[in-house]
Design brief:
Chain A is mainly alpha-helical and about 210 residues long. Helices cover about 65% and strands about 0% of the residues of chain A. Chain A has two domains: about 10-100, RNA polymerase sigma factor, region 2, helix turn helix motif (Rna Polymerase Sigma Factor, Chain: A); about 125-205, Arc Repressor Mutant, subunit A. The longest helix of chain A is centred in the C-terminal third of the chain and has 25 residues, at about 175-200. Chain B has two domains: about 5-50, no CATH class; about 60-170, no CATH class. Classes of the chains: A mainly alpha (about 210), B mainly alpha (about 180). Bound molecules: zinc ion. Zinc ion binds near residues 3 and 33 of chain B.
Chain lengths: ~210, ~180
């Protein structure tokens, strides 16, 4: 899980206010606070660490440029997510235009099938099938196979821990749409991973 | 309860049988297919949530702040140049063209002035250090002059803003 937030809501609001008046150091603190969260989100959306870095940086730059227009109607974190989401979706759509037959087998992972920036696997025994490399690659691929609208909701809810309400605000869609997209995304993911799960010795308790 | 209804419920709770309604639980007891479905959902959930989080790369925050500083510095001098070359009542595209032209001429001037020990009298320095190697002229450009500058700009194919190159000093030189 991403690093827990260390600043209170009030701290954030004060930093946003200072940053809005051009205080670079205050904005730096906001970047520190949210960079891992936003990077992880974008990285899951794009499955490419370098593009993820670019998009995450651009999201913060846009946020900084748009701060004078940020009125605090939405919380800073949903606002930031919305900027990142729009940028990530742009990249996804550009990829589709450029490569209509975009292959998921292609350059998404480095030679050994993992991101170079992968956090070391410290979850214990190699027998723990749920954390093997093969499984992670398969899960990433299954996520990438989701249409971007389902992928977005899936990542925000399941991996980023956002609430239905916040997701509705981030994506600017009704609550019901968030729920139905999540339902469809789970179904699709289950279908993609069914064989792997069924074949696995994975011990799944209810 | 139909299999379809039970499966919808299973998806909602990732196949966890503890959270099911009594009717769904009773259905599971007699329906092997739905039990299988529940098992696959649980396994999918475990796999999905086992994905490790990724962190932004080293130096990320510094990179963002640096980029902000760079953009602000650039906006500073391009705005000044734009105002300097074209009266404020000109259209924005004319002003933009003037800035591009100024950059181009700065480079052309750079080769002219490079090697000279000192800059001519009346030189105004807008950015960069005192060892300036680049000069730009024409404080009050007419449309025709701007066109000419723009042509040079295109001929030079200058697309890199100077502010992005710390090795280049931009100096604005005023002719009488
Ligand atoms: Zn059934």
């Amino acid at each position: 899980m991403a690093k827990a937030r260390q600043l209170s809501q009030q701290d954030i609001e004060e930093l946003v206010e200072r940053a809005r008046r051009g205080d670079g150091a205050a904005f730096g603190q906001l970047v520190e606070e949210y960079k891992d969260k936003i990077y992880n989100y974008v990285s899951r959306m794009l499955n490419d660490p370098y593009e993820a870095e670019d998009v995450t940086q651009e999201a913060f730059l846009r946020a900084y440029r748009s701060l004078p227009r940020f009125r605090g109607a939405s919380s800073f974190h949903t606002w930031l997510y919305r900027i990142a989401s729009n940028l990530a979706i742009d990249v996804v759509r550009k990829r589709k235009r450029q490569e209509p037959t975009y292959s998921l087998d292609e350059p998404m992972e480095s030679d050994d099938g993992e991101y170079e920036r992968e956090i070391p696997d410290d979850t214990g025994s190699p027998e723990d099938r749920s954390t093997t490399r093969e499984t992670r690659v398969a899960v990433r691929r299954a996520i990438m196979e989701l249409p971007e609208k389902l992928r977005d909701v899936m990542i925000l809810y399941e991996l980023q821990g956002e609430t239905y309400e916040d997701i509705a605000e981030i994506l600017n869609v009704p609550l019901g749409t968030v729920k139905s997209r999540l339902f469809n995304a789970r179904n699709r993911l289950k279908e993609s991973l069914e064989q792997l799960v069924a074949a696995g010795e994975l011990e799944v308790e209810s | 309860m139909t299999c379809e209804e039970v499966r919808a419920e299973l998806v909602e709770c990732w196949g966890s049988t503890e959270q099911l309604t009594t009717a769904a639980t009773e259905h599971l007891a007699i329906c092997e297919n739905c039990r299988y479905e529940a098992r696959i959902l649980r396994g999918t959930s475990v796999m999905l949530h086992s994905l490790p989080s990724e962190s932004a790369p080293e130096g990320f925050t510094a990179g963002v702040l640096q980029q902000i500083a760079r953009e602000q510095a650039q906006r500073g001098w391009t705005a000044r140049l734009g105002q300097w070359f074209v009266p404020a009542n000109q259209t924005s595209w004319t002003r933009a063209a003037a800035v591009g032209a100024a950059i181009a001429l700065a480079v052309a001037g750079g080769s002219m002035w490079a090697g000279r020990g000192s800059l001519p009298e009346g030189t105004q320095q807008y950015a960069g250090s005192a060892s300036g190697t680049i000069a730009v002229s024409t404080p009050a450009a007419t449309e025709a002059e701007l066109d000419e500058l723009l042509r040079r700009h295109q001929a030079l194919q200058m697309t890199q803003p100077l502010a992005d190159d710390p090795g280049v000093n931009l100096v604005v030189y005023t002719t009488k």
